[in-house]
């Protein structure tokens, strides 16, 4: 065999290995997105079921609970209402995540990725175990909190992790998180409808943390220099010091020998760990991504947790619980489709998606107050459209942060921006509680 043939075979083998590694990473991040959000999705329903079971255990026997947040109602008013808004469970599931995302980006770089994922696996496992064996309200809430910690830490860590791989893994991650909504709801619903108790169903869900461990430690193909069990660099001491330019876009610029950038401003450092001052400046620049994302999620979760349970159509063949269940399922299907759309479609202006989602929230608020909608199918269509907007806003936000951030700031930017969706969800839960109380008092 001549030298040219040998070199050709070598290039072909290397290219083949590269393609295998590429798809292993895309599939790996898809599974990580699925596993990371799975406990969060399941807990919104499973914790409610367990709480309901505990309530009925102390009174008279009742039929087995089903996967619905609209089981008990008060028909004395204008609306068929739950005594407590579904936003109460949402807040327990999102506030720990929000706290982590607000604080962790400033110190989490000192914790190696390998240890972070171990914490995510441990807390997800604890969430299923605690919720399944719960004997009191506080234990059920503790299970929800464990799920929230796992999801919050996992999301900011895995989004940061994408900077070490080809940008295509963002598409896999986004699609996987969308799949968690549909998969979690359908799997939990299917198992409980098949006759399994919520406790047994949650114990079966322990396979999810195992899948996360396999996906991260065995499926991903890491770069040779990846800091798996060591911190990425020295932790900056205090929030003082560092060079902060007078005007700094998300993209950094190379410095010149005279210490000035191309605009004559102090040059931005291009090596070394980010100081706290630099992180705060970068965070300010990220607001153009964080604010639209927060608005999208505020509007859609205000709809989901504050309005949908009030949109009941008695003339439909579906019961109130079945209507609510289909609202949530169609929403998750819309999210799955749009979070998978990054493979073929990219939307630069997320602000347009925010405005459209706010229009949805306003229209459905008016629909609840004036009872102008005549068919459940109209709401089905709106909810599916709502999910499409929310999922598209999520994946496009992180895609353009990844493309517009300089190498040195990209890892922090991906983690810090993750606070947007959680902030919007938490604010929507706080707004949905008084809204629910107001409408149910009519």
Automatic annotation (TrEMBL):
Membrane protein topology class: Multi-pass membrane protein
Biased composition (Basic and acidic residues): 246-261
Coiled coil regions in record: none
Keyword Transmembrane helix: yes
Keyword Transmembrane helix included in the entry's annotation: yes
Transmembrane domains' residue ranges: 27-47, 113-131, 137-161, 168-188, 200-222, 285-304, 324-342, 349-370, 376-401
Keywords: Lysosome, Membrane, Transmembrane, Transmembrane helix, Transport
Gene Ontology CC annotations of this record: endomembrane system; lysosomal membrane
UniProt cross-references to InterPro entries, sorted A to Z: Battenin_disease_Cln3, Battenin_disease_Cln3_subgr, MFS_trans_sf
Subcellular location: Endomembrane system; Lysosome membrane
Gene3D superfamilies given in the database record: MFS general substrate transporter like domains
Disordered: annotated span: 246-266
Pfam entry (one): CLN3
Entry's family note: Belongs to the battenin family.
Name used for this protein in its record: Battenin
């Amino acid at each position: 065999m001549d030298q040219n043939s040998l070199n050709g075979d070598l290039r072909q083998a290397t290219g083949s290995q590269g393609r295998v590694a590429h798809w292993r990473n895309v599939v790996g991040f898809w599974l990580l997105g699925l596993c990371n959000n799975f406990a969060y999705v399941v807990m919104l329903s499973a914790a409610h079921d367990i709480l309901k079971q505990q309530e009925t255990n102390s009174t008279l026997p009742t039929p087995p609970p089903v996967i619905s947040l609209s089981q008990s109602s008060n028909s004395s008013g204008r609306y068929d209402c739950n005594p407590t808004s579904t936003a109460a469970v949402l807040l327990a599931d999102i506030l720990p995540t929000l706290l982590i995302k607000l604080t962790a980006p400033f110190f989490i770089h000192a914790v190696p990725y390998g240890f972070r994922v171990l914490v995510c696996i441990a807390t997800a496992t604890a969430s299923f175990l605690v919720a399944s064996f719960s004997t009191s309200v506080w234990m059920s809430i503790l299970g929800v909190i464990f799920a929230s910690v796992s999801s919050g830490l996992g999301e900011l860590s895995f989004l940061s992790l994408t900077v070490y791989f080809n940008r295509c893994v963002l598409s896999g991650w986004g699609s996987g998180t969308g799949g968690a909504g549909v998969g979690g709801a359908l799997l939990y619903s299917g198992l409980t409808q098949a006759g399994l108790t919520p406790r047994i169903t949650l114990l079966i869900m322990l396979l999810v943390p195992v899948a996360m461990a396999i996906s991260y430690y065995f499926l991903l193909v890491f770069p040779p220099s990846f800091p798996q069990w060591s911190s990425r660099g020295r932790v900056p001491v205090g929030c003082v010091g560092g060079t902060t330019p007078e005007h700094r876009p998300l993209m950094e610029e190379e410095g010149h020998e005279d210490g000035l950038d191309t605009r004559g401003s102090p040059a931005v450092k291009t090596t070394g760990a980010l100081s706290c001052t630099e992180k705060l400046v970068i965070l300010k620049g990220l607001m153009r991504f964080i604010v639209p994302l927060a608005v999208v999620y505020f509007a859609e979760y205000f709809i989901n947790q504050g309005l949908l349970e009030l949109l009941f159509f008695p003339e439909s063949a579906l019961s109130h619980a079945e209507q609510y269940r289909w609202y949530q399922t169609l929403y998750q299907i819309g999210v799955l489709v749009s979070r998978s759309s990054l493979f073929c479609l990219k939307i630069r202006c997320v602000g347009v998606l925010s405005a459209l989602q706010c229009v949805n929230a306003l229209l459905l608020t008016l629909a609840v107050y004036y009872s102008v909608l005549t068919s459940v199918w109209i709401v089905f269509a709106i909810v599916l459209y709502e999910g499409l907007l929310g999922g598209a806003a999520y994946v496009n936000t992180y895609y353009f942060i990844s493309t517009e951030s300089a190498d040195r700031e990209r890892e922090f930017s991906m983690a810090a921006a993750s606070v947007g969706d959680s902030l919007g969800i938490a604010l929507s839960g706080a707004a949905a509680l008084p809204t629910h109380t107001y409408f149910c008092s009519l």
